[in-house]
Design goal:
Helices cover 41% and strands 18% of the residues. By secondary structure, the chain is α/β, with parallel strands linked by helices. The chain is globular.
């Protein structure tokens, strides 16, 4: 069961991308209970297509890195070409090809290792919202 931690994220629009449907729904439930409006996609290609058509409908992207078809870092590169100031949080349980420095060079300021700590995720989102 997901329990709300804060209600400070009212109406923040979050695009969630994870090929693990259960995790994607967990993130959606967590963020929704904390006031966010979420859209969930299970692959980067569909998420990017939606983002292109609704570029101003999202305030934040939360994406897994390791996904088939289009990885989270590839999604981030494409999103940042379209909207360079889009806040993106990438997460992964294991991704040996990317270091934190690599992510920073791509414009990704936040990385969370899986399993994600709910409080840490909400703290980062609150921090991004205040910027």
């Amino acid at each position: 069961m997901v329990v709300p931690i804060s209600k400070t994220l009212d109406n923040l629009r979050v695009l969630i991308v994870d090929d693990n449907k259960d995790l994607a729904e967990f993130y959606s439930d967590l963020l929704s209970l904390n006031g966010c409006v979420t859209s969930v996609f299970n692959n980067g290609i569909d998420a990017l297509t939606d983002f292109k058509f609704k570029i101003n409908n999202y305030d934040l992207i939360l994406s897994d890195i390791s996904m088939p078809g289009m990885t989270g870092d590839e999604l981030a590169v494409e999103v940042l070409k379209l909207k360079p100031d889009m806040p993106i949080i990438l997460c992964s349980g294991f991704h040996p090809d990317l270091s934190t420095d690599d992510l920073m060079k791509l414009g990704i300021k936040h990385f969370l290792p899986k399993p994600i700590d709910s409080t840490k995720l909400l703290d980062i989102i609150n921090e991004l919202k205040l910027c």
